[in-house]
Design a protein that fits this description.
With about 425 residues, the chain is α+β, with helices and mostly antiparallel strands. Helix content is about 35%, strand content about 20%. The strands form four sheets. Strands 6, 7, 8, 9, 10, 11, 12, 13 and 16 form a nine-stranded antiparallel sheet that branches. Strands 1-2-3 form a three-stranded antiparallel sheet, with helices on one face. It starts with 11 loop residues before the first helix and ends in a 9-residue tail after the last strand. This is Fibrinogen C-terminal domain-containing protein. It is found in: Secreted. It comes from Umbra pygmaea.
């Protein structure tokens, strides 16, 4: 093939097309394919040949030699119009290529969008299924919540009822603890029984009834507190405070002073029935003391404490009190203890007096006691804080404090704490069950 100069290259397509047209024209007119020389001025610019092939196409062969400073003949030059349209055609081709690329990109983007839409649809379906499941679960939870509320309400009602029952049961237990509800069969004494046998608790056939705190102790109770006892001689039940700790326990407390919260300047009737608070300061009552101390042989213990918290006690082997018709006459003897006796040697066999009975000692002392001319012990006197008090104070007639004379060898020292309690002489502490 011949080499085309640079300025002929752009028009090659047009020239070849023109040649094909010429060859076809020759074939139509019955001319044989031949070789022709190119050159209009006698110089050789090149040659070409054409031939029709079997499939009816034109086979064109052109030889264009390299020619310096020579121009191809006019048949190889394109006009300005042809050049313009060829240039436009090239731009269209570039635009078509760009359009194809843009279309390809748009198609790819469309595919991506379709994929994202599909993913979103799947996600939406999954969310719908999840929402449906959550909604179903929510309805189930609402149902369970309603059932739980009903159960809570029922349980609250049951708890309230149980609390009420427990409260009632506690009251019943406390009542049973304080008042055992026992039965008493009093065996009347016969003419063959001695007076001592008739007074002894073992011959009184008491069924399930504690007659004192020692009986409660023997029933296995080892805790101090309030209990109900029934003296065995047919007396009424009485609530008492039991001391289950001091010297082995089993003590029935008759009197206590601890803080001056209860006044002991009381009438005969009040000392007869008892007054005060069993948890703090009180007098059990002369009738009850009589009933308790006349159902057997009892010992008396008196505990004393001064304002420096020094503690002593007096123990009397025998203690009892007669009935009201004998003015609750005192019987006390058999002293021992850690303090000197200021009670039995002077007050034994004395009747009980109160300020409203006309007894001058009771009026001076502002309390009830077994006064003689007046006292060496006065545990129901006025409560003076600090201990020492002056005879020139509220009562210039004489001493009226809580006095145990031998403590300070003085009637003008009032003790801080005192208590009186009894238990059977035959009592023996036992090991806890």
């Amino acid at each position: 093939m011949a080499y085309l100069p640079p300025y002929c290259t752009p028009i090659l397509g047009f020239c070849l097309t023109l040649c094909v047209f010429l060859v076809l024209s020759l074939e139509v007119h019955g001319e044989d394919p031949t070789s022709h020389q190119i050159g209009g001025d006698g110089s050789q610019c090149g040659e070409y040949s054409n031939q029709v092939i079997e499939n009816g196409m034109c086979h064109l062969v052109a030889t264009l030699p390299q020619m310096e400073e020579q121009r191809c003949p006019d048949m190889f030059r394109c006009t300005d119009e042809v050049s313009y349209w060829m240039h436009e055609n090239e731009e269209r081709k570039q635009q078509i290529i760009l359009l194809r690329e843009t279309i390809s990109e748009l198609q790819e983007e469309l595919r991506n969008h379709r994929h994202r839409v599909k993913v979103l649809e799947l996600q939406s379906e999954e969310k719908n299924r999840m929402n449906s499941s959550l909604e179903h679960r929510f309805h189930e939870l609402e149902t369970h919540y309603a059932e739980a509320n009903t159960l809570v309400h029922l349980q609250g009602t049951l708890i309230f009822d149980l609390q009420a029952q427990i409260h009632n049961l506690s009251r019943l237990v406390e009542s049973a603890r304080r008042n055992p509800g026992c039965m008493i069969n009093i065996v009347r004494t016969s003419s063959q029984m001695s007076a001592e046998e008739a007074r002894h608790p073992e011959v009184q056939h008491v069924s399930n009834c504690p007659i004192d705190c020692a009986s409660i102790y023997y029933n296995g109770v080892r805790r101090s507190g309030l209990y109900t006892v029934v003296p065995s001689l047919g007396a009424m039940p009485v609530e008492v405070y039991c001391d289950m700790e001091t010297d082995g326990g089993g003590w029935t407390v008759l009197q206590r002073r601890v803080d001056g919260s209860v006044t002991f300047d009381r009438s005969w009737r009040e000392y007869k029935d008892g007054f005060g608070d069993l948890h703090s300061e009180f007098w059990l009552g002369n009738n009850h003391i009589h009933d308790l101390t006349n159902q057997g042989e009892y010992s008396l213990r008196i505990d004393l404490e001064d304002w420096s918290k020094k503690h002593k006690h007096a123990l009397y082997e025998s203690f009892s009190v007669d009935g009201e018709d004998s003015q609750y006459r005192l019987h006390v003897s058999g002293f021992s203890g850690t303090t000197e006796d200021s009670f039995s040697w002077y007050h034994d066999k004395q009747g009980f007096s109160t300020p409203d009975t006309g007894n001058i000692c009771a009026e001076i002392s502002h309390g009830g006691w077994w006064y003689k001319q007046c006292f060496y012990a006065n545990l129901n006197g006025h409560y003076y804080r600090g201990g020492r008090y002056s005879p020139k104070g509220k009562n210039p007639l004489g001493p009226d404090g809580i006095v145990w004379y031998s403590w300070k060898d003085s009637d003008y020292y009032s003790l801080r704490k005192v208590s009186m309690m009894i238990r059977p002489r035959t009592f023996r502490p036992r090991m806890s069950p």
